Amino acid sequence: PRPHPTLRVRPLTCTETRRGDQQVVHSLGDGAVHVSAARHDATFGFSAVFDAGASQEVVFEGSGMRQLVELAIDGFSCTVFAFGQTGSGKTYTLMGPLGQSETQPASPALLGLMQRSFTCLLEQSRSRGSDLALSASYLEIYNEQVRDLLSPGPPCALPLRWSKTRGFYVENQLSVEFESLEAIVSLLLQGSQRRRTSAHALNRHSSRSHALLTIHVCSRAASACPSKQGTLCFVDLAGSERVKETGSSGELSVEANSINRSLLALGHCISLLAKPRGKRTHIPYRDSKLTRLLARSLGGSGITLMVACISPSSRCLSETLSTLHYASRARRVTTRP
Q1: CA 48 to chain centre
Q2: Which of 15, 131, 175, 218 shows its CA 20 to 30 Å from the CA of 249?
Q3: Contact 233, 80 (CB under 8 A)
């Protein structure tokens, strides 16, 4: 199967409206979106397009996320990744509002794909009556270092290894078992509060790292059947950005360059994977820690849902076009789960 790129167009922000930015992205219905601005007139097709009015529930139901949860229970390796320019709504789509914490939970209607998937996973495991063992690990890649977001103490760098049986894996990462919705949501919120974020000209809470939350689903079946081991991995990519636009300097600029390098490596792998199998050359997964960790989901035995997030503002046109081209290329990648 091919990845299902879905597109989410966020509303114009108050700042953009006050500034007089034009809306240059329009949904045409039926998975098509049209970009019209000076010297640009293009239409792109996706599995689904969610415009500014789409609720978090509509995105969950319309993106195929529920089916992905079921496939993970059936033993498949499933990945969801959100990508796009900084400030385009990736973290909101995956997690919901930024200010939420265990003491101040978000309103249920605003919860993102992650919490909705956890609810669905736990409901499924109860209804199937099967003996599911669930555990979670949560990592961030910051300045090309892999760090554990769940282990106590300040996040320290972990080595990334390769083995014939497991492919690329992170050594000594903490995996925490959970049985309830409260427990997994608590792990998510604790981990995301430890993520690196900074404020700059385009986004007051810009994620400065790529975060990967992996849910391991092991079905301990009756002795006659072998157990199935599936994974559901949520990837919140740091936003692509032009350093000039964000006014970043010093450490922020180093972070931006490291983010852009890993996104470039990811784009390069996707471009090569999109070629017909006979014409493919070597896929350079080793070019970045991000592509190593996503190697299995991108080109091998995984099933991937991609959520491209864009701003409709005329001011963000070049970044929006680059996200749309990126997602269109990803449509042509085939995997063999």
Answers
A1: 16
A2: 15
A3: yes
Q: Per the annotation, does 227 bind a ligand?
A: no
CA dihedral of residues 183, 189, 194, 198 (deg, nearest 10): 170
pLDDT tens, residue by residue, 203-259: 455 567 899 999 999 987 666 567 889 999 999 998 775 555 545 556 667 888 888
Alpha-carbon gap, residue 118 to 86, rounded angstroms: 26
Residue 129 labeled ligand binder: no
Supply 312's token pair. Answer: 């409709």
HSE-up of 180 (CA within 13 Å, CB side)? 3
Tally helices (H) and strands (E) across the chain.
10, 17
Ligand-binding site membership of 191 (annotated): no
Give the number of other CB atoms < 10 A from CB of residue 17: 12
The domains of the chain, with CATH numbers, are 4-99+110-197+209-244+284-331 (3.40.850.10)
> What amino acid occupies position 78?
C
Closest CA to 333 of 310, 288, 307, 302: 302
Question: Whole-angstrom distance between the N-terminal and C-terminal Cα of the chain?
Answer: 8
The answer on whether 313 is annotated among ligand-binding residues is no
How far is 15 from 206, CA to CA, in rounded Å?
16
Q: Do β-strands 228-236 and 210-219 pair in parallel, antiparallel, or remain unpaired?
A: antiparallel
Q: In the block, which residue shows the tokens 């070597």?
A: 282
Nearest to 299 by CA among 256, 257, 254, 268: 268
**Separation CA 273–CA 269 (nearest Å):** 6
The answer to the question of whether 86 is labelled as a binding residue is yes
pTM, 2 dp:
0.90
Helices (H), 50-97: 56-62, 65-73, 90-95
